[in-house]
């Protein structure tokens, strides 16, 4: 039987580990030329399909309001991470596409996250690290690739 006190600690361990990983990622991204990129931006960038995405689809993918996503996309556009264009199928809608800077940020993020994972595996041992990954996959089960981030975006 698991110590009941662990039930209170476990979620905070997960959040703390996640936060540390994301903070490390963004420190390294800043050093690699992306100092203005924030975690909320990275989540939005991940929601853009290769062919481009409408803001409404991005909002639905991430689980935030259209207004919250529009605000985030506006900031990403200002920073040069995305380009917006009128949707030829519906002139009222916009299509958001990654700019070269956005593709660079996502590419670097993948490399950095792989290196951070290896660094953590080196500390705890590869077997323990892979066990932790298996446990987290089992806990997440068949959940969506993106959880809803309302609080992070200030959305609905």
Topology:
Elements: H1 4-31, H2 39-46, E1 53-54, H3 55-62, H4 66-79, E2 82-87, E3 90-98, H5 100-124, H6 126-140, H7 150-153
Antiparallel strand pairs: 1-3, 2-3
Please provide the count of β strands. Answer: 3
Distance between the termini: 39 Å
Largest sheet: 3 strands, antiparallel
Strand content: 5-15%
Q: Enumerate the strands of the largest sheet in spatial order, edge to edge or round the barrel.
A: 1-3-2
| Mean pLDDT rating | 89
- Considering DSSP H and I runs of 4 or more, what fraction of the residues is helical? 55-70%
Name the quaternary structure: single chain
Structural class: mainly alpha
Cα-based radius of gyration, to the nearest Å: 18 Å
| Helix run count | 7
Cα shape: globular
Low-pLDDT runs:
152-156
Order of helical and strand elements: HHEHHEEHHH
């Amino acid at each position: 039987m698991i110590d009941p006190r662990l039930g209170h600690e476990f979620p905070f361990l997960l959040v703390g580990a996640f936060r540390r990983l994301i903070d490390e990622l963004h420190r390294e991204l800043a050093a690699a030329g992306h100092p203005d990129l924030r975690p909320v931006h990275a989540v939005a960038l991940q929601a853009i399909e290769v062919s481009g995405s409408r803001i409404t689809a991005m909002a639905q993918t991430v689980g935030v309001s259209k207004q919250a996503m529009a605000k985030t996309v506006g900031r990403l556009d200002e920073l040069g991470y995305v380009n917006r264009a009128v949707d030829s199928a519906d002139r009222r809608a916009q299509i958001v596409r990654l700019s070269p800077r956005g593709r660079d940020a996502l590419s670097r993020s993948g490399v950095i996250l792989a290196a951070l994972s290896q660094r953590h595996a080196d500390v705890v041992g590869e077997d323990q690290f892979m066990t932790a990954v298996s446990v987290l996959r089992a806990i997440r089960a068949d959940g969506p690739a993106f959880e809803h981030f309302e609080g992070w975006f200030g959305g609905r």
